């Protein structure tokens, strides 16, 4: 497949790049609606779309096919020009999106399966987003395995795969900003990363118009930022977090694991072991959790820890009691890995009252935070 740089001067136009890709990527517009893949996993190949026009055509084809099915069942068809997914009195198929950067593994497959279980239409996007990569990061060497990725999508019953050459060409002058959520933890190590991620996710939500959007909980800060964006900017979509998928030895699945040598992969297990140790120590409180996890990380060879933190699952602020995320980021060789685990910290004991002070005048007991909200979050909830 022809590759074209999106950053070098004198690059071909979007039109010429699309023409160059025609011979290698089937057009969604060349596939009749009757050829829509079955929703049964593994039964057919998904429709492919490689630009916005083909995406619109592919989504319209899916809706037409749904209308044909509804007529066969005696139900009223949804109007072709319905502006929303549930236009007045005309229910339309539930659409889910799973956004990826490709190099799909079992973690991505679990997202697709969750989407397939809850939606009539499943759209996967495969796009390595340059806006979320900083200088010196692995944009150019990020694994690209499109043929294998399409096999995964077909096996999980995906209806349409959006594989654009570019989303913003030229780069957008107006971008979303993550604000304070994008400046700590991962954001402190990767300035601008979450701004680029949200700009891409927001654009994809407008293009695909899903009812449901599925994201992995391994990228905890990303999930917090997306939920906040959806709530604050009134996106009409439900964000669903899906549990982290791990290798049998506990290593969190990541497309970047392919960078690790066998020795580095063994060292990388320290991250999940540290989190598990911290979770086992949660009854001892915040300081005990952190000390226990640090001890595991310190004993590992070749693990350069960036941060180990306990944070609120709602807004990533430091937390001392109640529901919490224990997050870790470390570099193993040249590969930066992240992981996290949920736990619940016990209420902190009130500070002892000074001698001679009535008990009622002492510090009040800390009230535990309410339970973490369900992973199905909707801005209107």
From TrEMBL:
SUPFAM superfamilies cross-referenced by the UniProt entry: Nucleotidylyl transferase
Gene Ontology MF annotations: ATP binding; pantoate-beta-alanine ligase activity
Compartmental location: Cytoplasm
Compositional bias per record (Basic and acidic residues), positions renumbered to this chain: 369-381
Source organism: Frankia casuarinae (strain DSM 45818 / CECT 9043 / HFP020203 / CcI3)
List of catalytic residues: 108
Reaction it catalyzes: (R)-pantoate + beta-alanine + ATP = (R)-pantothenate + AMP + diphosphate + H(+)
Stretches with biased composition (Low complexity): 26-38, 356-365
GO BP terms: pantothenate biosynthetic process
InterPro entries found in the cross-reference section: Pantoate_ligase, Pantoate_ligase_C, Rossmann-like_a/b/a_fold
Residues that bind ATP: 101-108, 216-219, 245, 253-256
Gene3D superfamilies: HUPs (3.40.50.620), Pantoate-beta-alanine ligase, C-terminal domain (3.30.1300.10)
Annotated positions binding (R)-pantoate: 132, 222
Family under the similarity heading: Belongs to the pantothenate synthetase family.
Coiled coil start-end: none
Pfam families xrefs: Pantoate_ligase
Binding positions for beta-alanine per the UniProt entry: 132
Protein name according to UniProt: Pantothenate synthetase
The entry's keywords: ATP-binding, Cytoplasm, Ligase, Nucleotide-binding, Pantothenate biosynthesis
A single cellular component GO annotation: cytosol
Reported function: Catalyzes the condensation of pantoate with beta-alanine in an ATP-dependent reaction via a pantoyl-adenylate intermediate.
Pathway assigned to this chain's UniProt record: Cofactor biosynthesis; (R)-pantothenate biosynthesis; (R)-pantothenate from (R)-pantoate and beta-alanine: step 1/1
E.C. code: 6.3.2.1
Misc: The reaction proceeds by a bi uni uni bi ping pong mechanism.
Region (Disordered): 1-49, 64-91, 346-381
Biased segments, Polar residues type: 1-25
């Amino acid at each position: 497949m022809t590759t074209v740089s999106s950053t070098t001067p004198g690059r071909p136009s979007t039109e010429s790049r699309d023409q160059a890709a025609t011979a290698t990527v089937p057009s969604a517009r060349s596939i009749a609606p009757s050829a829509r893949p079955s929703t049964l996993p593994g039964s057919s190949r998904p429709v492919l779309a490689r630009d916005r026009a083909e995406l619109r055509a592919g989504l319209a084809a899916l809706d037409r096919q749904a209308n044909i099915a509804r007529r066969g069942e005696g139900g009223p068809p949804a109007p072709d020009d319905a502006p929303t997914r549930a236009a007045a009195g005309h229910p339309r198929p539930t659409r889910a999106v799973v956004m990826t950067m490709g190099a799909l593994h079992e973690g991505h497959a679990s997202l697709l399966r969750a989407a397939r279980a809850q939606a009539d239409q499943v759209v996967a996007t495969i796009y390595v987003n340059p806006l979320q990569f900083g200088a010196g990061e692995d944009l150019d060497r990020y694994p690209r395995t499109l043929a294998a990725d399409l096999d995964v999508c077909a096996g999980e019953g995906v209806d349409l795969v959006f594989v654009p050459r570019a989303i913003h060409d030229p780069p957008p002058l107006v971008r979303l900003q993550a604000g304070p959520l994008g400046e700590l933890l991962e954001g402190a190590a990767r300035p601008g990363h979450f701004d680029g991620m949200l700009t891409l996710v927001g654009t994809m939500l407008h293009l695909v118009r899903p009812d449901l959007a599925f994201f992995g909980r391994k990228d905890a800060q990303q999930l917090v930022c997306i939920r906040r964006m959806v709530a604050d900017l009134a996106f009409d979509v439900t964000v669903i977090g899906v549990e982290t998928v791990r290798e049998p030895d506990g290593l969190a699945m990541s497309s970047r694991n392919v960078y690790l040598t066998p020795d580095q992969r063994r060292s990388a297990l320290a991250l999940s072991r540290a989190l598990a140790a911290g979770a086992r120590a949660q009854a001892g409180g915040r300081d005990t959790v952190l000390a226990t996890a640090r001890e595991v990380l310190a004993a590992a060879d070749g693990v350069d820890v960036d941060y180990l933190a306990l944070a609120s699952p709602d807004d990533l602020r430091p937390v001392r009691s109640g529901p919490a995320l224990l997050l870790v980021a470390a570099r193993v060789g040249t590969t930066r890995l992240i992981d996290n685990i949920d736990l619940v910290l016990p209420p902190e004991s009130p500070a002892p009252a000074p001698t001679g002070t009535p008990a009622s005048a002492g510090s009040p007991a800390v009230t535990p935070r309410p339970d973490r909200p369900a992973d199905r979050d909707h801005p209107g909830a």
